[in-house]
Predict the 3D structure of the following.
Amino acid sequence: MAIGFNVETVTYKNLKFQVWDLGGQTSIRPYWRCYYSNTDAVIYVVDSCDRDRIGTSKSELVAMLEEEELKKAILVVFANKQDMEQAMTPTEMANALGLPALKDRKWQIFKTSATKGTGLDEAMEWLVEALKSRQ
Amino acid sequence: MYTLLSGLYKYMFQRDEYCILILGLDNAGKTTFLEQTKTRFNKNYKGMSLSKITTTVGLNIGTIDVGKTRLMFWDLGGQEELQSLWDKYYAESHGVIYVIDSTDEERLSESKRAFEKMITSEALEGVPILVLANKQDVETCLSIPDIKTAFSDCINKIGKRDCLTQACSALTGKGVNEGIEWMVKCVVRNIHRPPRKKDIT
């Protein structure tokens, strides 16, 4: 669990990513906004099995995307923990997070399993192309 | 005086914006069509290489200006599971581009069913529909008459709206300009769905 934040620079396909991995606990969430400026993409990681807290996940996401500084940012949702049987499908996830209401933003969902490492390559590959072709 | 000035401001700095939905089964070529369109209508746009396009599980957007008219595109994922998200966009759409893979005879009836469901939706009543018979660059593809025959029992469900079937290759760009120009003409003349006014930024 990240209590503060981790900063890392990752190079993938000749594109340098400055990644801020921010802690997700309620008390830390107000600090997310300190990192919004110059953000090209938001990777929002959601526990696909935690149906109880998906509502909280949605309201945090909605509030975040209202910020002027994130107006142009691409949204990538990692529907994580897909190795579990009861995991939500991408459509369930899209509806639960209210993504169809986002009409001016490019967004995409990836099924991932961070522990097994699945879906991550595909997602990064997609993000590289998406960032290169911004209008 | 105020009316005159505000009218001038609007004339100079505002565009009529129309929202266009791009629908169709997965692998029909919707995202490729969007990228091709963006590249053709935006001088400074360096599109993504069309070969790198992958399956959409979400939404791609794009804007083009055709004269004084602005089109804003919504390109949605086409997989069966994702089709339930399509109707969330209907109420705000001014036009629909429905893309068919002309090389996939096996899935033509599946595509027809999705098309049928879409055109019978009340929220899309009167909205112009451009049907793109895509991948016409492939020699063995189905012709326009073949596709029209396969979709023939939908004809009486189309209702009172503009509808055109256009041969196209999103990959080479053939038919793209013709399709877009037709769509612009139709959304502008459809008085039932007035445009959004957008400041030029």
